[in-house]
Amino acid sequence: MLKIKTFTSQILLCATLVCGLAMHTHAQTATTLSISGEVATPLELKMQDLAAMKQISHKVKDRDGKEHEFKGVALIELLEKAGVTTGAKLRGENLAKYALITAADGYEVLYALAEIDPEFADQVILLATEKDGQPLPAGEGPFRIIAPKDKKPARWIREVRSIKIAFAKN
Ligand SMILES: Nc1nc2c(c(=O)[nH]1)N[C@H]1C(S)=C(S)[C@@H](COP(=O)(O)O)O[C@H]1N2
Ligand SMILES: [Mo]
Question: Which residues form the Oxidoreductase molybdopterin-binding domain (predicted)?
């Protein structure tokens, strides 16, 4: 009897774990990233939309000096898809535009468009979806910004939910 009970509870435990994992995976794949503001085409992107785009990766050290390989889509590609003024159009008044990035926990960071555009910047800022070959875990993903040349990771914003393009003037 005791053996049967143990067996049943083990099955229940497994079911709970599998179900929890499935729910977590679903939550991560259902999360959308919105790109809005000064854009030609506002976007709502899911994991699968990003997976269909060109992937790049960066090997970077975290704040503890541990190396990780982050993979995902270049932020500039996403801005181009949304019709943001990049490349030849990033001049004149457009140089006063920025991207304000907001996370699920309310944390926000800002990059000027010129910091994101590789015609100006000597880093390619990444919207990462994977770390060391795995989808980013809850609390970090499903989307995280990695700016490999920033000397500290304070702008590597986790759990990104929205990117708003705006003019830094009234
Ligand atoms: N959403 C969100 N992202 C965040 C933060 C935060 O508080 N919320 N903290 C930042 C800071 S100050 C640092 S140092 C790094 C730490 O990254 P880690 O958690 O991978 O070590 O995350 C950055 N990204
Ligand atoms: Mo930090």
Answer: 30-164
Res 4 pLDDT > 60:
no
pLDDT reported for residue 23 = 62
What are the residue ranges spanned by the domains of the chain? Answer: 1-30, 32-167
As given in the structure block, the two tokens for residue 147 are 């700016």
* Ligand 1 near 157 CB (within 6 A): yes
Q: What's the CA gap between 37 and 79, in Å, rounded?
A: 11
φ, ψ of residue 8 to 5 degrees: the values are -60, -45
For residue 94, what are its two tokens? 């457009």
Of the candidates 110, 126, 128, the one whose C-alpha atom is nearest the C-alpha of residue 165 is 110
pTM (2 decimals)? 0.90
pLDDT at 29: 84
Distance (angstroms) between ligand 1 centre and the Cα of 98 equals: 20
Residue range 32-167, CATH number = 3.90.420.10
From ligand 2's centre to the CA of 156, what distance in Å? 9
Ligand 1: which residue has its CA nearest to atom 7?
107
